[in-house]
């Protein structure tokens, strides 16, 4: 990636991060850290491992875009080292957190960082595929969480209606994504934008990207399933973050409740995808989820505070890692 683009991503991310940090109530932050104690360290360290799930899923996708025949075994992409990709993954998520509309920052950065190693078309295909897989796993997580709530929590008519609506919307979205995987999605999206000047000339490259997207589902189903399961496992395992915080105030915290809190908080927060770091949406989601599961408002506030601080720390780490990307000739 050219140095000027690298610096542009870095400066923009740092500027937004500084603005978000100034919105914190530092007295409340210090009180929350004091209450969390060593569990806060466990929360931050947990994401060191969770990003390995994300990197592994993307690594599999990159390897799959290099296979052309059905059933061809995945090969280690020699151009891409796992730990280099890990660094790009963390930086990409950091840019997503700081950018309004989420994918507007991290995905272009990932493509530009990866393109010199494997080519623009293959890099674009792998990034689009990973973004689709990341969202696809969220949809399955929300759908399965609806079933988990029905199986483990007391129900009423209002909750039943809400869960039915969420499950139906997730089901429709999952069907749409499966169609996109089978037939590709890049050309379809560009057909909508084809009346804009200068976009038609990229149709051949987009067709190539679409063929690689379809290949993951049609020619490499094992890679497709592995990537989705890794992302889904990451969603479930990240509920440990909430579990660690709840142990501070509830020694007998229930992990399944933590999964439900995470599911419905992330669902609410993603409705506000246009907000940098989902400011306000995530906190409101934690409070509503805690209340819905008969937990105290105090528990919801503490969870939201600790998670927000962890996000800011890892966002700062990801932005700093942008500056450690050696230029590849």
Structure description:
The protein is an all-alpha fold and 329 residues long. Helix content is 78%, strand content 0%. It contains 14 helices and no strands. It has helices at 3-22, 26-36, 38-64, 82-98, 103-118, 120-152, 157-183, 186-193, 203-218, 221-237, 239-249, 255-270, 281-292, 297-322. The longest helix has 33 residues, at 120-152. The chain is globular. The termini are close together. Residues 192-199 and 274-280 have low confidence and may be disordered.
Topology:
Blueprint: H1 3-22, H2 26-36, H3 38-64, H4 82-98, H5 103-118, H6 120-152, H7 157-183, H8 186-193, H9 203-218, H10 221-237, H11 239-249, H12 255-270, H13 281-292, H14 297-322
Helix pairs in contact: 1-14, 2-14, 3-4, 3-6, 3-10, 3-11, 3-14, 4-5, 4-14, 5-6, 6-7, 6-9, 6-10, 6-12, 7-9, 11-12, 11-14, 12-13, 13-14
According to DSSP, the number of beta strands is 0
Major beta-sheet overview: none
Contiguous low-pLDDT stretches (5 residues minimum) are: 192-199, 274-280
Can you write the helix and strand succession as a string?
HHHHHHHHHHHHHH
Helix content: over 70%
Q: Which structural class do the helices and strands define?
A: mainly alpha
The number of helical runs is 14
Mean pLDDT: 77
Radius of gyration: 20 Å
CA-to-CA gap between the ends? 10 Å
What overall geometry do the principal axes of the alpha carbons give?
Answer: globular
* Beta-strand percentage range: under 5%
């Amino acid at each position: 990636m050219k140095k000027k683009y690298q610096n542009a991503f870095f400066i923009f991310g740092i500027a937004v991060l500084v603005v978000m940090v100034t919105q914190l109530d530092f007295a409340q932050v210090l009180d929350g850290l004091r209450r969390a104690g060593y569990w806060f360290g466990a929360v931050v360290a947990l994401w060191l491992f969770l990003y390995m799930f994300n990197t592994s899923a993307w690594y599999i996708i990159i390897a799959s875009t290099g296979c052309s025949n059905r059933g061809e075994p995945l090969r280690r992409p020699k151009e891409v080292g796992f730990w280099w990709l890990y660094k790009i993954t963390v930086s990409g998520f950091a840019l997503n957190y700081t950018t309004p509309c989420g994918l507007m920052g991290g995905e272009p950065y990932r493509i530009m960082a990866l393109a010199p190693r494997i080519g623009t078309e293959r890099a674009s295909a792998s990034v689009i595929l990973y973004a689709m897989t990341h969202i696809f796993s969220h949809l399955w997580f929300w759908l399965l969480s609806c079933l988990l709530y029905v199986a483990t929590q007391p129900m009423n008519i209002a909750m039943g209606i809400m869960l039915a609506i969420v499950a139906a919307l997730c089901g429709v979205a999952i069907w749409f994504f499966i169609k996109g995987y089978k037939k590709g999605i890049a050309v379809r999206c560009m057909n909508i934008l084809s009346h804009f000047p200068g976009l038609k000339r990229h149709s051949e490259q987009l067709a190539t990207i679409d063929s690689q997207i379809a290949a993951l589902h049609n020619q490499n189903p094992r890679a497709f399933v592995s990537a989705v399961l890794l992302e889904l496992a990451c969603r479930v395992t990240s509920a440990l973050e909430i579990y660690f915080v709840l142990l501070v105030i509830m020694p007998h915290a229930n992990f399944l409740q933590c999964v439900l809190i995470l599911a419905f908080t992330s669902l609410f927060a993603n409705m506000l995808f246009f907000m940098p770091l989902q400011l306000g949406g995530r906190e409101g989601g934690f409070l509503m989820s805690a209340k819905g599961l008969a937990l105290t408002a105090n528990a919801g506030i503490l969870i939201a505070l600790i998670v927000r601080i962890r996000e800011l720390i890892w966002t700062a780490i990801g932005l700093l890692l942008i500056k450690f990307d050696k230029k590849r000739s």
